[in-house]
Amino acid sequence: MKTKKWTSFAAAIAVLLLGSSCQDWGEMDPAAGNQVTPTLENVATFSFDEPELDPIVYKTYANADGQLPSVVEDDIKGNVLSLNNGYVTLNNPLNSVKVQKAVSMTFWMKQPLVVNVDEEGNETTEPQDLTGALIAFENENATSKMFFTANGWIKYNGMDGEWEDNNPATYATGYIPAGDWHYVALIMRNDGYGLYVDGQQKVEKKVTDFDCSKMVQFLNNVSKMYIGSTETSKPWMIDDLKIYRNEITAKEIARPNIGNGGGQGPGGDDNKFEPIAPIFFNSFDAGMNGCSIYGAGSIIYKGGAFGNVFSNASGAMRSNYLVLPSNVLGQSADTQALTIGVWVNRGNETESSAYMWAPLFTAYASHNPTDNGMPMLACQYRGVLQVNCNGWSDYTDDQNVNKQNILYHGENDWLADGQWHYYTAVFTPTTAKVYIDGEIANEWEIDGTNNTAAGLFSNGSELQYICLGGNQAWNWGDNDPGFWFDDIAIYNQELSKAQIKAIMGLKTNVAYGNTFSNDADNMTLKGAGTFVNDETPGFGKIFQNAVGGLRENYLVFPSEALSKVGETKEMTINVWLNASNAGASNTYMWSPVMTGYAEAPGGNGCPMFACQYRGALMINSNGPDNSGDNWCDYTDAQNVAGTNQILHDATDWLVDHKWHLYTAVFTPTSAFVYFDGELINEWALDGESRGQQCDLETLSTLGYVCLGGNQAWGWGDPDPGFGFDDIMVYNKALSQAEIKQIMNFKK
C-alpha cells in the first residue's frame, strides 16, 4: 500500500485549521450595503455508520508499520472510525460554501489508555502520547497546512505566515483526556479561537499577534481535508465529525447524549443507552400530578428508592384504580411510537389466582363504554396486549415472533415473590413488545394493513379515560388488582432494552435512598432543620436545612447507609439542592453537601470523606497504620483537565434559587462531579501518595454520615441552609447518561 509522508499528526491538524496564502479578510468583503449576515450551516457530517468506508468519499493510507483506517464497532458509540498510525483524506466540504467570520467543527474522540504489565503480572494504565494531528487541512502542493491535536496544539504554516498555540514541546494542556469518549468543539474565528471539551470551555482566546482571518479563509478554500496523521501516530477513534461554516452556538457546543441513536429503537441497540424524557411521569412523591384516585386506593409510603407509591384496593370490577390525565396518549402522532413503563408490586394481593386475569393499564374514550367498541387499549398483567383504536390488533399467537404468546400468570406469576418488578409495553403501528424486568416477555409483528395499531397514534387523543390498575370496562369479569404502583411513565418514543434496563438501574442500584415523603424517615435530624412542602412541580416534601452554625444543623444517615458500597467498590451520591433559603452566596461558598466519618468526630481524624458544594472532593480512608497517609484531596494535578474547576461565590451555580442536581461519582481510580448532569471535575488517581486509589471498602464502614453539614474538623465552614430532595446513594458509578435520565424525570 502506498503511504504518504507528512509533518505530523499535529501538523495534520494544523493543516486542517491553517492554510495557504489568501487575501486579507477586508479585501473579501462586499461593498457597503451588500454584506452577507454570517449564517451557521452544517456543511458536512461524517457519521461512519456503514460497516465499510465508501472509497469514493474516503481515501485511506497507512504510515510505515501502521494500519489502514477502518470502521469498527464500539460498545458505546456503535460504528466509529478507528485510526492506528494511518489517516484518511477527503475533499474539503467547505469549498461549497462561503465562510464569513468563522469555521467550526465538532466530533467525538477516544484515545485508549496504554496498559503496562509488570513482572508479577500486575496491570497499570497510563495515557499514550497522542501529539499527532487529529484533523488537518492542506493545499494541493502541500505548501500550506493547518492542524489540531488531542492536546490542543493548533498550527498554521502558510506562505502568508505562521502561527501556533499550545505546542506540546512547551505547553502540556491535557485538554482531551484518554480512556473515555469525549466531545470536542473547535471554533476558528477571524480574531481568535475557542476550544470546548464535553461542553466545558478550555480556551477562549483573542489572537493579537496574527491575522486569524487568513486561517479562516484557508479553511474555506483549501482542497484537502485529513482525519489522522501522516506521520507515526498512536491509536485513536473518531465519530460524528461535523463541519460548519461560521460560528456554532451553545447548542452545538453542549455535549450530546453519548448514545449513537442506531440499532433497535431511537436509543440504540441493546448495549447502548440514551436518556429519554417522558411526556408524563408521576413518582407519587410530589402530589398527584394530574392523576386522581377512583375508588378505595390511596398513596402510601414504602421508603427507600420508592418513597410514596399508589396502593390500589383489591377485589371488585371497575371500582378501584388510578385515572391519569386525559391527554397523555395523544402525543404520539408524529413519532408513531408509544411506551408505557411502571414499577409493580403485588402489594395487597396474596394469591396469584386472585389477579391472574387482571388489567394493568387500560384506556377508553369514556368512563363506561356502552358496548365492546373502539377506541380502547389494554395491557394485561399476564403479558398480553389489545388495541382497538381505528384499527384492531389483539396480538395473537400467529403474530408472536415465537408463534406462541407466553402468559405470565398462575404458575408463571412474575409478581409472586412479593418484590418490585418493572413492566414495560412498547408499541409501533406494526410491532409490540412487553418487557418484564427489562427482558422481552412477548413480542409481536403485525402486517400494518389488515391488522394494525396505527390508530393508537392517529386517534390516540380519543383515549381520554386512562386507568392504571383496573377498569377493564368492557363486559369482561376481570377484577381491579390490589397492586402497588410507582413511577408511571408515558413516552412518545420506542424505548430500547438498554434504556429500560438503565431506568431500572436507577432503582435497583440504590444502596440508600430517601425522598423525604415521610419526613426524616430513618434519618436523624440534628439542629433546626425542618420538612416542608415545596411547590415546584416534581418535588413535594423536602428537607429544608437551617442557615448558619457550625456542625449544628444537618441530617444523619442510618449507620449502615454506605455498607453496600464496599461490595461493589463503586459509589454515586445524587441529591437535588436549592439555595432559596441559604442566604447570600458567600455564606455557603465553603459548605459541605455531604460528609462521612467513623463516628461523630471531635478532631481532624480519619477515615472521612467530604463532598463540597463548590465541586471539590476529599477522602481520607486511613493508612494501614492509622496515620492518615492514604489521603486524597483530588488536587489540580490529579484532575484530568489539569486544574480543578471551583464554582462558588461569583460562579455560584445555585444563585438562581432553582433546584439543581448534584452528583459525585467514586471508583477506586477515578472521581467525577456533575452539576445538572454536566461534568464539572474529573480526577484520575495514580495510586501514589495523596493520589491513592479510593478505598471504598473502608468508606463503606463509615457510620456517621451527614447530609447538609457537619464539616466536623477544625474548619470554620458553616452548615448550609439548602433545601434537599431525593438523596440517593448508589452502589454503582452512574454514567452521565444515567444522571441525565434522573433529571428527565423531574422535567
Largest sheet: 8 strands, antiparallel
| SS content category | mainly beta
Global Rg: 29 Å
Number of helices: 9
Task: Please tell me the overall pLDDT.
Answer: 85
Shape: globular
* Straight-line distance between termini: 55 Å
- How much of the sequence lies in strands comes to 25-35%
Defining traits:
mainly beta, 8-stranded antiparallel sheet, 9 helices
Explain what the structure shows.
- This protein has 747 residues and is mainly beta.
- The protein contains nine helices and 47 strands.
- The strands form seven sheets. Strands 1, 3, 4, 6, 13, 14, 15 and 17 form an eight-stranded antiparallel β-sheet that branches.
- Strand 28 and strand 29 form a beta hairpin.
What is the fold's blueprint, element by element?
Blueprint: H1 9-17, H2 25-28, E1 41-46, E2 59-62, E3 70-74, E4 78-83, E5 86-91, E6 102-110, E7 113-117, E8 123-127, E9 133-138, E10 145-149, E11 154-158, E12 161-165, E13 181-189, E14 192-197, E15 200-206, H3 213-221, E16 224-228, E17 236-245, H4 250-253, E18 280-282, E19 292-294, E20 298-303, E21 307-311, E22 321-324, E23 338-345, E24 359-364, E25 376-380, E26 385-388, E27 392-393, E28 421-427, E29 431-436, E30 439-445, H5 455-458, E31 465-468, E32 484-491, H6 497-508, E33 510-514, E34 524-526, E35 530-534, E36 540-544, E37 554-556, H7 565-568, E38 571-578, E39 592-597, E40 608-612, E41 617-620, E42 631-632, E43 660-667, E44 670-675, E45 678-684, H8 696-699, E46 704-707, E47 723-730, H9 736-744
Antiparallel strand pairs: 1-17, 2-5, 3-4, 4-17, 5-16, 6-13, 6-17, 7-8, 9-10, 9-16, 10-11, 11-12, 13-14, 14-15, 18-32, 19-22, 20-21, 21-32, 22-31, 23-28, 23-32, 24-25, 24-31, 25-26, 26-27, 28-29, 29-30, 33-47, 34-37, 35-36, 36-47, 37-46, 38-43, 38-47, 39-40, 39-46, 40-41, 41-42, 43-44, 44-45
